[in-house]
Amino acid sequence: MNINTYILKSGIRLLHVKAVGDVAYCGAVINTGTRDEMSQESGYAHLVEHLLFKGTSKFNSNQIISRMEDIGGEMNAYTTKEETVVYAAFLSRYLNRCFSLISDMVLDSQFYEDSLSKEIDVVLEEIDSYIDNPSELIIDDFENLIYSGNPLGRNILGDRKTLHRVNRKRLVEFYRRTYTPDQMVFFVMGNYSFERVVKLGERLLGSIEPVRRGYIREKLAAYTPQTKEIKKHTRQVHLVMGGRSYSYTDKRRFAFVLLNHILGGDFMSSILNMHLREKEGLVYEVCSNYTTYADTGNWNIYLGCDYDKVEHVTEIVYSELNKLIEASIAPKELRLAKVRLLSYLTIGGENKESWILGVAKQYLNTGRVMEKQEVESLVNAVTADDIRRCAAEILNREQLTVLKYV
Q: Residue 349, Cα to own-chain centre: how many angstroms?
């Protein structure tokens, strides 16, 4: 891929990826998420994302929809703990129209009162739907335990009490404090010259006042493992165990990605799936997940099982974790894990939409983009000793937080 970057006088960064094809992508990644909210602002980042679609000084909400759908394009957005993303896929000849629309939404949304009240109701319905899904809800409750007292642990959707109190003034204050030009990357991927993208960026974004963010995100307190049960009266026990792990700038993350992949990642041949499901039939679903943030990360195992099996299942999990701590991965197993992981990454890279979103996030957070060859080299350089050291640091039973829905 031919990747180019450019910084405008406003402080907004441009990311351009030359790609042949009739379909193009453009969007914005803003370094604003749940962890940028103050205690009385829970859910504001996600609510702002909703309101970006509800009107600017140029277009009302219906016009925003028609500007994209009239040309057969698709627009989407999402909020995470650390970022907000707005992006579109469209036929390449409509770049000016789509880039202009997204820049207008991100930089000139008006947060109209009538739209605000409607979107609060929409988010409240979203919260109700989410509460009905314990396999997703338990992950957020788990993060709230391991990041206790920090905004990073909060649910992205927010809470009912805070959302009922929100008003336009408070939401605009949050938007202005967090949506500063130095925290934005606008990206374009398509069959365009770099010169055209820079020229378009200068015209649409170059005159924006170069405001810099005036605060630093709250630092994390020391981690203390916890064990907790929450009564949910579900038909089976939902269990999550795990703890804090490496950030997305930590070099050890490549070894831990491999370790997570071997233990319970995206393949049926993972240790936990083979033992708990294929061998003993104790669970329907078991997986391990590794999520990275700017200054931390977290890792967890999720599973669901019958009430009378949970103790047995838990001891099996602890046993498998202990094996990874005490003994090195066999050379053949490590080699196969690298092959599977790199194949998985390569296949995923063929999905241009998910690839460009990942690259834009990487550029926002690190100021650079890692080439495919560099990633492959770092993965291939991981040794069995590297993995064992990660296991000793992260998988130790004494370091694990355990949460159950019973």
A: 17
